[in-house]
């Protein structure tokens, strides 16, 4: 294999250090919560908006209360009701367009920057392929759910925890029912056989995760030690996978890079920078008389520039294919400035304190920029001191993912108040679908075009991803909240409908288990159709219940 236990152990220590630093960083940005932080808002707060019938009265009422969705940079309710009174349809349309843009930014940041940093880190830390697959690859694929969950639980706005819970449950249901169902139906004629031991392992651990979450919801509260125990179940899963691969020969060679390339090829930017930066390519377009295509790309590039440029100038990238010395120098210079802005925005310091923070950020940025300018080459990325570059890209991609998730959760919560829809149903559907669409495209494509091995990896990913989101993403959120109120417990209101969704999730797992074993572990149409029916029934019941509450 080419790796030793000492190198793996040293790699784990460095990776743990990076994750710890990143957690501390976001802990600074997150607003502390109190013992009632997970209790929903009362009827006298933002829910009272439904009693007002015109934009002017709603605007006046919003000025008398705290922001209803305070996670993000923008107060979307005030923006709509105080600025679009004469053009309500235009205001709502702009919010929906911004929602699509946020989904794109969150998914693209995870795919283009976050996963790229994780790939390079896995090589630098010399992690085994299997461990990299169930840790770094799951972290990359689950990044949108992870940050949405963190924002929902630890954000400034109280009462959005139900968005995080329903997003995790909704995403897990979508992936294990819809994605697995589509794969099963698509491969019914090929009679692909799934590895028995890996399937039993994944389903059993996922059932344990769902059961643990159900106990937390029924009990209604959890302390720091309980949250740590819940989150540590994922470490047990990773250890079990590694031991199965190491001593049981299970899983074969898992190529993290090839899987990411397969996913990133489906989520490339609408227009690559090089299409416009290099004059030679522009001339080639003119030679082949493809003016219309070029100008269409130009329009799209200009429209996406405000979304693309800020991340390019603040996230260091050191890959061979994307290396640009001017961009690299600019990114390490401006990244500390962005972090200082976020620090001041969250902490609301005095003008003197804010000035000190900005001055510190600028000085650090200038020092890093001059160092990068003097130590890097124009032709290729640096070969020495690669860990600081990768760590910087890792932290800044996490920062942008967190910012995007903040805005996304804030906007979804605001849309819930605008249209009288529970934010929890939006988390179960819109946010869960948006975060899971990448899994759908990547896993189905892998299953269809990479043979039996690709189908095995795709199906395993459909269970490893939800396990990560349930135990790690949700667990980290619970640990963060419990840490703030230690030694008391955080209170989570029991939601019978969320328990119903968990029940349907278990039914889907049991159906897959029974059908696969009766069919000698072969994927088939019966399994796929059954999973789709289970998901549609669960979703229909939840929507009917939500509609009934509005009357």
From TrEMBL:
Main localization, broad class: membrane
Positions of the Sodium/calcium exchanger membrane region domain: 96-242, 390-543
Subcellular location(s) of the protein: Membrane
Biological process, per Gene Ontology: potassium ion transport; sodium ion transport
GO molecular function: antiporter activity; monoatomic cation transmembrane transporter activity
Keyword list, A-Z: Antiport, Ion transport, Membrane, Potassium, Potassium transport, Sodium, Sodium transport, Transmembrane, Transmembrane helix, Transport
Transmembrane spans: 12-30, 87-106, 127-143, 163-187, 199-219, 225-245, 294-311, 323-343, 355-374, 386-403, 415-434, 467-486, 498-517, 523-544
Pfam families: Na_Ca_ex (PF01699)
Bilayer topology annotation: Multi-pass membrane protein
Keyword match Ion transport: yes
Cellular component aspect of the GO annotation: membrane
Residues making up the signal peptide according to the UniProt record: none
Family statement drawn from the similarity comment of this UniProt entry: Belongs to the Ca(2+):cation antiporter (CaCA) (TC 2.A.19) family. Cation/calcium exchanger (CCX) subfamily.
Name the record gives this protein: Cation/calcium exchanger 2
Natural source organism: Raphanus sativus (Radish)
